[in-house]
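With this grant's support, we have settled on a layout for protein records. A representative record follows, to show the layout.
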Amino acid sequence: MTADLTKGLLRDLNKLHEFDEDCNVILKIGRGFDINSFNAHTVILKARSQYFKNALKDLKRNSKLFRKENFLTLEVPHISADAFKIILRYIYTGTISLNDIANQECVLFMLDLIIAADELELNDLVDYLQDYIIENLSDWVKNNLIKIYQASYGREAIQQLRNHCVRLIEDDPRLVFKSDQFYLLKESNLIDLLKRNELGLQEIEIWKYLIKWGVQQDPPIVDLDIKNWDLKVFTKLRDRLSNLIQYIRFFTISAANYFEEIRPYGMVLPDQLKEDIERYYIIPNSLPPSHALPPRILPKRSKVMVNLPPPVSKPKELKSDDSNDGDDKAKVPKKIPIPEDAMSISSSQTDEQMIPLRISTTIHARNDSQSSRDSLLSPSPDIDFDSVLINKHQIKRISRWIDGTYNLGIHGDINNINRFILLTRGNRDGMSGDDFHSRCDNKGPTIVLAKVDKTNVIVGGYNPNSWSSSNEWIDTNQCFIFSFKSDGCREGIDDIILSRIKNPSVAIFDGDSNYDIGFSDLQLFSGKYEHINYEKKLMIEKNFTIINYEVFQVIMN
């Protein structure tokens, strides 16, 4: 039978610790004016700590060791005296009490404690403290994420805690950007963060945090009013951000945000970058340079795409019998009642009847019925177009809708046909939001087509702007949605519906992968339709399923 009498052993060892009996080493802990002395026994220190075993091994080869009277003196400047007081008790007794670390002020001491344990190579204590922190101090970790992340960098024994911090950052990078300690983040760590595609923030917010980081570096820029800055201040900020600017996805930021939030800091940006950005915003249909980084994506928290958010400001409605003038909260316009005769479009109606009159700015339409009949009988000019959903007749019709001509005839001068370049096809490249944005963002104007399951219906929409995953509403009166209800070869009896936007402020929601392809009324991936913001009703069904989709880049002639 084996008896466990370690309790008495620990009691007696604690007496050695408390009464300094037969101590033969003085430990000077700390540096500068914050140095405290502790008496200890070399035999216990060497038995318990590899650090002390190495430091006390050979007095002649260690310049920091020297004899004073009958004591050895060892300086340990890189840990705090408060932390070592707890650690020395642990070395003698194998016990540690964290009950006194109850409030937030004391909890901040925990980081010093675990770093000191790591420095002294007390691996069992390091493992215990890591487990304790992760399991019991989650709020403290989140509030001090940057300090912990940087303090644990390069410390192999504290990788468990560092990996925990990394997981928190991956789940919600905003914890770093929105932290009061954000300015303490080292440049190298900030670069690692900016390289990530998933940050959970809009790019313009990331830009603002980057400016804040640069302003708060030591010595901080005290005057925060940029109107008062001279060339010296701008140069200081430019130097601080010179290695970071390249990781901002400028071409996913809206023109309005660029004008308000980035342009005032133009002196901070490299000249070529400014020229590329201004060309992109000023010249119609300009594309980002080939080296531009793709839009960031938010980590998916659900397989179901969330609904489109309400616009920032309430769009102007055509009619509102029950509006509340005192309610200034942003909201999606209420559903406009649809007369019974507008629920469907007769096959005998022409495009002129279905679409409000607009003035063509590109080519003249032949509006007489004879011209329309003649055009139906004339041969179709060749057009290079790769689609499995619609044919050349239908893409020519879409091209004329884009150009602003609405006659029923589908033929005409081939020189006036826009070019359509296939960017993605669902059954070939994938049907997810990530697949869509990785291939279609920053490509300029696009046409999106989708095949509705168990029908011969094709629905789609035209976005005159680039998709950019900005999570902002695009205000435009140039977009439209549409449907075809046959294969398009028998133009005289096709059910063709073209529906242009009537509330431009909610025309298109340029969402990231967490949102649907958002033509406001028509949400393709989630299969939802509600007639609210576009003129004509496309379908009676409010829910549908798509089995394939295609996206084409539109190159204007």
Remarks:
- The two ends are 96 Å apart (CA to CA).
- Confidence is low (pLDDT under 50) at residues 299-306, 312-381, 405-415.
